[in-house]
Amino acid sequence: MPRITLTIAGQPDDGLTRKAASELARLTGSVLGKALDATLVMIDYFPKERWFIAGQPLTDWGRNGFCLEVTLTEGTNTRQEKADYHRQAFELLADLIGNVHPHSNIHVLDCRGDAYGYGGVTQEYRYQHPRHLNEGDS
Length: 138
Hints:
Elements: E1 3-9, H1 14-32, E2 40-46, E3 52-53, E4 56-57, H2 58-61, E5 66-73, H3 79-97, E6 105-111, E7 117-118, E8 121-122, H4 123-128
Parallel strand pairs: 1-2, 5-6
Antiparallel strand pairs: 1-5, 3-4, 7-8
Protein name: 4-oxalocrotonate tautomerase
Organism: Halomonas eurihalina
C-alpha cells in the first residue's frame, strides 16, 4: 500500500488536485506495481511566499514547486523501478503544474514491513499470512 503525499506551492486548485491524485495513483501502479485500490493519495498546498529555495521564496524565482513523498514497503521495488518513478513523476508533475523550479523534489521512502501497514495490520503480517487477506491488500 503506497501512501502518496504531494505538496504543491500555490493556492488550492480542485481541478489540479483531482488530476494529480488520479495521475499519481496510475503512475505508481504502472511503474511500481502497486494496487490502485490500496493506494492513498493526500494533496496539500503551501504558500509560494513561504516556500524557499536557495534562500529565496518561489515568488522571487517566478516559479512553481512541489514536494512528492511516496511511502513503500522496503524491498518491494528495485532501485531501477524507483529511478524510473522519480523521472516519470517529475515529468508528470512538471507538466501538470507548469513552470516548476528544478529543485522541486521527490522522496521514495522505504519503510520496514513490520513498521508499516494499514487497517491495523502490518505489511510483514500480510506477507507472512497471505491466505488470510483479501487479494487487493498486497
